[in-house]
């Protein structure tokens, strides 16, 4: 087992070192962006998001860095953009604003548009969907301090365009882990970290009526049932396609 710390590498370096599609290793799409979707089998689509598209981890010339700097300067009063050494990132923050710290980030507008297109394609195929993201999208499965900056906007797409076909969101980042089911029945699983939990690993069985996460060591097992697929009303589908 090995652990790669995202904070220590540029995205371009990670792609160069780890992108090996012939061997089944994929960390980016063919366009070089660290978000992609695959259909591993009929009936299922897996979507990988990059919640650091907008973040201080981007190179300073990248639009995502500029947007992240603007958000942090707007919502965090601690001067964390230019001088983060020895600074209490959370001083003066509370509630939903706790997310605006340098080690978090956002999916961003460009990627959200791409996500909406991928979700609609999956619905057209009558696929169920699993979403993977390092940053949690629901604070109830983690905390506001570890949440994706635009998590609510991402979930709005998954709820409104997914028509009940998004089964689960798997995330990391908050080392102790967490779990919740949102109001639309989407399971949010924040996986425990191998940095703090010994022998922390697992696998997921995809069954006809549920996902079964089999955890080992510090990783908590979880059963995630889902209902039969409902037919997408033609009027509702037409409305979604016209937006």
Automatic annotation (TrEMBL):
Entry GO MF terms: 2',3'-cyclic-nucleotide 2'-phosphodiesterase activity; ADP-ribose diphosphatase activity; CDP-glycerol diphosphatase activity; manganese ion binding
Pfam families, sorted: Metallophos (PF00149)
Superkingdom of source: Eukaryota
Location of the Calcineurin-like phosphoesterase domain: 89-176
PANTHER family the record matches: MANGANESE-DEPENDENT ADP-RIBOSE_CDP-ALCOHOL DIPHOSPHATASE, PTHR16509
Name of the featured protein: Calcineurin-like phosphoesterase domain-containing protein
